[in-house]
Amino acid sequence: MQFTLVPHPSTPPATAALKLWVNIDHAAKLGPVATTNIWFGVGAPAERFVIPKLTEPWRADELWRTTCFEAFLRPVGEDAYREWNFAPSGNWAAYDFSSHREGMARAEVGAPPYVRMEDNFTWWAVGATIATDAEQPWQLGLSAVLEEQDGGESYWALAHPPGDTPDFHHPDCFTARLA
Fold first, then answer.
1. What pTM did the predictor assign?
2. Coil, helix or strand at residue 70
3. By Cβ atoms counted within 10 A, which residue in 93, 98, 131, 157 is the most buried?
4. What count of other Cβ atoms lies within 10 Å of the Cβ of residue 24?
5. CA-CA distance, 139 to 66, in Å (whole number)?
């Protein structure tokens, strides 16, 4: 599946022609666990953005403070959801919420995600492989924070709720389905 992300009206990118897209492959099921591959693509050279140096990946908080990609998975019909954060450096985070921005807790994950960056010179991508419940249908929110070298930041999502401030956790952002 491929999706297009749109910038929040209050935080446009430096260049209006900038494109962001997400490809998701949710096919490899082994018993109760599915492997879900998520690739976030950015249609501009990587050197235009603030990207932390690649290091040995680890779990880290506050990745959203600079260039970061996010996936929100909520079981269909429920309020609770999981937020995944992926940095181009390979760092990652996962949090569970009981409802919209409520009950935040560090998520217990069986295996850390596999996060990687690919630079194609005119565009670049961050890929993340996560384990999900193979039988669970999901509502999905996808988003990105891009920090540019000139100091500008833009906030991208499948959809944005009304308002002057981006809120990736808002139920209106969970517009895709993953089954």
1. 0.94
2. strand
3. 157
4. 18
5. 26
